[in-house]
Each structure stands twice: as structure tokens, then as C-alpha cells.
Design goal:
The chain is an alpha+beta fold. About 55% of the residues lie in helices and about 20% in strands. The radius of gyration is 49 Å and the shape is rod-shaped.
Length: about 450
Amino acid sequence: MTPPGGPRARLRRLPVVARLVLAVAVTMSLVLTGAAGLVYWRVRTALDQQLNDDLTTYRHSLDQAVRAEEELPPGPSGSLRQILDAHGRVLRSSDALPRRALLTPAELDAVTRGATVRRDVGSLLPITSGTLRLQAGRVSAGGRTSIVVAAVRRGHRDEALRELLAQLALASALTLIAASYVGYRTARAALRPVERYRGGAATLAEGAQNLRLDVPVDRDDEITRLGHTLNHMLDRLQASAERERRFVADASHELRTPLSLLRAELDVALHRPRSTGELTDTLRSVDTEVQRLIDLSNALLDLEELGGTAHVTRTRVRLADLVDGAVAPHRRTAERSARRLTVEVADVDVEVDTRWLPPAIGNLVDNALRHGRGTVRVTAAVRRHRLRLCVTDEGPGFPPEFLPRAFDRFTRAEASRTGEGSGLGLAFVRGVAAAHGGTAHAENTPHGGAVGLDVPC
């Protein structure tokens, strides 16, 4: 488990640019190390192969000379030789070699048993003198056993490899520096718009209004799409803020009217003694305004509860029963107004929320009875698993300028705010439709206004 202040935590605290450059540097280091290792291995293999071929050829010529008891032949440049007896005593040796056996006791024993020994003397790094590569084998001649040791100097091979290592290290270092610089410049350039967006967001947090990020229109990369998304979010936030301000203003206006009327009725009643009849009229007026306040509060609470509902609870119900139950409370109102109220519903079952949909239908019918004229028709049908319900009347319809905001809160078609209704009925209808994953619509027809729902069922 990494401690809170460990390397991983410190790495996360670095700026994004620093982390990107570090990632590029580490990745390039691994790539360059792998590439350099491959090149070094290929060159060393080629040099070793050539060295081994020369060494093997030279040893074979020495073996033939020992068997024929001839003069030892000269070898390639830098070659050395040593002839030992079975006990490891030096019989013949190159002048440049010391008068002691090049083989260890273990190697001497292995060669005596018939094995071929190959070994390097000295190391590539650190630099040492007298580096050799030797090969030893057993030779039998004239009834006695000799051990032939052939060796070649590795100086040129080691020098070439050290030069190669130096060049690879230099080239890798320069490439790593160049890659890190390019990565830094690229990361800075890529994140510059993000820093600009951050500055814009900081300005917005300080209270700036109507702020929009400067997003290039000739690009379509991730950063540009982020800018468009942020601008879209700012548009939504501004629209939401405007709706909230309008909501507060409209709600204040709607509440102020009944409260002012209540205060006026009470002031008049308390101004001088009143008769029982006058007090009764005052109480009835107060009761009307109190009921208006209750209806307004209930409508606001329903809207807030509906807006905070994560999902609707669908129940299978007969469509005709659902619509008839929603319309029934309004039939007496239609009769008192000498208006017809007709229902045309398909005989099918639907799966909807039986808590929210009936009051939404009731709001549509109430709206048609209150603001429309003539016959009110309620039609409902199911097509392709979608419930399409529509309420129409024979009135003048909606003013054209009202239709785009018909479902906004506290919006009424009347020019005055003193008309009946709170302006929340259609807003509630749209909320119910949205909770079901559907839509609400309002339009004018040749015969009057039409408002409806289209929800999956």
C-alpha cells in the first residue's frame, strides 16, 4: 500500500504538463534503451562471429601442426598460442604470453577429458589491457596428449563496442532531450485552451454575466468539443438562472395578490363594527383567498416533487378507466357552463404512473373549460407503444406569441395577471410528460386550441 506522501501521491500533485513531459521522457527512455540495446547486440554479435571464426580457423591450423609435429604456423594479426602437456606445463608459447598456463585447473581438466573451452580474458568495461579470447582443445599425437590454446586479442573489437556505446548514449540523450522539449511544447499548446477556459470559469465565478468561452470554429478536436460543451453548459445555466429569476418574480406576484386582498379584507372588517352578514361575507372572501394560496402552494409542491422524482412508478391500467376517472370531476363544471365534454378512448391497457397522469389530464380538461369555448373533446389512443392524448376545445385558441412559452411556470395567455388560475397547470403537464420520457405540445387548430401528451406506455 502506497503511503499518503509516497511517490505516487507526489506524482499526482505535479502539474499536468510536468506529468505529460515525464511520461514522454520515461516512454522515450524505454524505447531508446530498447533500440540501443538491439543495435549493440547486433553489432557485438557480428564482431564476435568474425572473431570466433578467425579463432577457430587458427586453432585448427595449430592442431594440424601439432599432430604432424611441424613448426607452428603464424596466425592472424594479434593472434597468440600456447601448447600445454596433459599436466598443464607450458611446452611452447608466444613471446607475448607469460610462462604460465592460460587455463585454470578446472578448464585444464575439462579439456583433458575431451571438451573444448572458450573464454574471454579481461573485460570491456572498465578498460583493461591484454584482453583476449581463447579457445582450447585436446590433440593426440605420437602416443602423447597435448593441449592447444589459441587466442586472439580483443582490443579492436572492444574499442569498436565502446565507441558504439558512446555514440548510442549521445544519440539517445539528444533524442530524449529533443523529444521532451517537443512533448513540453505540444502539451503546453494543447492545454493552453484549457487554461483559457479555466480563466473564463474563474471570471464567471467572480460574478461575470453572459460569459462565453472563445472556441475556434475551424477545429473539431477534443479540446474544441470541450469548449463547445462548456459554452452549452453556460447557456443552460444562464437560461436556468433566468427561469429562476422569473419564477421568483412571478411567484412573488402571485402570492402578493391574495395576501394583499386578505390584508385589505381584514383591515376593512376591523375598521369599524360589522354586522354578522358583513363578517360572514368577509370570512367567505378570506376563505377564497386562503384556498387560492393553498392551491398555489400545492401546485408548487407538486411541481418540485415531480421534478425531483428520479423515475415514475408504472402500473398496468385500463386506459378508459384512467381517463374517465380523470375527467369525471370536471363533468359538473361543464354542465354548469352548458358545455359538452366528450371522451373518445381506445379500449387498451397502458403502463403509466397512475398518481401523476390523472391530475395532468384533469389540468388539460380544466384549462379547456376555463379558457376555451364550445365542446371539449378528450381523445386517447395507443400507437407503437406510445400513448397520445389530446384535449381540444372550440375557442379562439392560443395567442401566437404565447405558444412558445405555454408550458412555462406562471405563464398565462391573458395580458393581465388577475385572471383565474396560477399559470402552473400546463407546467405540471409538461413535468408529468417529461417524467414518463415523453413530451407535451400545444397548438392551434382550425376549430380551437389543442393541448396533449405523447408518452411511452
